[in-house]
Design brief:
Aminopeptidase; alpha+beta; Topoisomerase, domain 3; 2 domains; five-stranded mixed beta sheet
């Protein structure tokens, strides 16, 4: 993860823990009434209006975190993170990744999104930095690399909206990972969310291969 990704994740968790401690009686009732772990996470997230990441942290919280000393430490950490970051989860709601999904790229269905990306950047989609070629030729080459297990292209989607790409290209024993977010969907946290999601997705395609993030964010 990038430093920004780690900081935003930590702030989400710390903020959620402090809120849970303030409303501990409601949280405990919610956990007791839940049928299982996943239901408890969903119920906590809804009760406190926090991310799934924060709700998971609340459910996994140790009892010694309830002490006054630990609560003071959490508050101090949250203050530090708030001073270091210039946005809140409310301003960048997509950064939690709760509503974002990644699916395989389709040359037919997603050619329009790739065309927008290529028009903006003017470079090939393989990460080489070479000038962009003919769109159909680029898509054919990408399909061939994916079929040969030398690349994976994923589309970041939220609901019915296609918000960007995650490109993974196998090069010299590493997977170069690049994130591109559509201009209309930037500054909402989608880049951070796509990076979070891509780690497990790309690891499934290339197990045991190191990932190198070349261009995190938009």
């Amino acid at each position: 993860m990038t430093d920004l990704d780690l900081a935003t994740s930590r702030r989400d968790i710390t903020d959620a823990l402090l809120t849970a401690l303030e409303r501990r009686h409601e949280v405990l009732d919610t956990i007791v009434e839940a049928d299982n772990h996943s239901d408890a996470v969903a119920a906590i997230a809804e009760l406190l209006d926090k991310s799934q990441l924060g709700a998971e942290a609340i459910l996994d919280m140790k009892l010694d975190q309830l002490t006054k000393d630990e609560r003071r430490k959490n508050q101090a950490e949250l203050d530090d993170l708030n001073s270091a970051l210039t946005f809140t989860l409310a301003e960048r709601p997509a950064s939690s990744g709760d509503t974002l999904d990644l699916r395989p790229f389709s040359p037919e269905a997603d050619a329009d999104l790739f065309a927008t990306r290529t028009a903006e950047l003017g470079v090939a989609g393989d990460g080489s930095g070479a000038p962009a070629g003919d769109l159909a030729e680029e898509l054919n080459k990408a399909t061939a690399r994916v079929d040969d297990e030398e690349a994976v292209w994923l589309v970041a989607v939220e609901g019915e909206s296609k918000v960007g790409f995650v490109f993974g290209e196998l090069t010299s024993g590493e997977v170069d990972v690049r994130i591109w977010i559509h201009p209309e969907h930037r500054k909402k946290g989608y880049g951070t969310a796509a990076l979070r999601k891509s780690r497990s997705e790309i690891a499934a395609y290339f197990p045991g291969v190191p990932m190198v993030v070349r261009a995190p964010g938009a």
